Amino acid sequence: PGALPLSAETSMPSLENPRRLTELDAVNVILKNSGITPVNGLGPTSKPAATKARDMLAEESIRLQSEGYNFCTIRGLEITPDAITGEIALPNNLLSMHPVGRSQADSLQEDGGRLFDYRRSSYRFDSPVTLDVVLAKPWTSLPQPARWAITVATALRFSNAENPGGANMRLTAEDLQKAEAALEKYDRRLLKGGLRAHNPHFKRLRGNR
Q1: What angle, 0 to 180 degrees and rounded to 10, lies between the N-to-C axes of helices 48-65 and 23-33?
Q2: How far is 82 from 115, CA to CA, in rounded Å?
Q3: How much is the pLDDT for 184?
Q4: How much is the pTM?
Q5: Which residues lie below 8 Å from residue 194, measured CB to CB, with a gap of 6+?
Q6: How far apart are CA 42 and CA 24, in angstroms?
Q7: Most CB atoms closer than 10 Å: which of 26, 98, 105, 195?
Q8: Cβ(148)–Cβ(21) under 8 Å?
């Protein structure tokens, strides 16, 4: 992606400008935690430290979401097979899945981006299947508690990689524990399946039925 345009979004949230952390905000928190000058944008011309921080942020985002929090889980999702092939294509952002309801007894797994019934050794399905799925969300769709937990975890990883045992770190393991606790508290308040109607992948998975 190209460099982000310079705008009000390039400045950190403040008391006068409260908002959720942007990706650029998160990268600058990571850089400042290691004593590195913040950047005004992200893209191919970014300095190596910013690019590394951004890559590590993406890795940590996937790691955290893979734990299956409510905010990135859709429960009881019914997926219809393709009308011609009978196959069920799974989205690239699928992190995990589990058959439930009438599909609970089925032996299902992901194979090459498709749903596979290994008991029948077949990719073909004659009827819809019901799954609990964990779908990775992009940064702009993450709730603020998740953004902060990911940022703190990445800042610690980045600092340890750049300066192992460094005394200049502003964020600590205690900060990470607090961030994770706040995220878990937020996540517990979500109603099960409450995000189904708002998830951008929901209608695409269900198909036009």
Answers
A1: 110
A2: 12
A3: 77
A4: 0.75
A5: 70
A6: 7
A7: 26
A8: yes
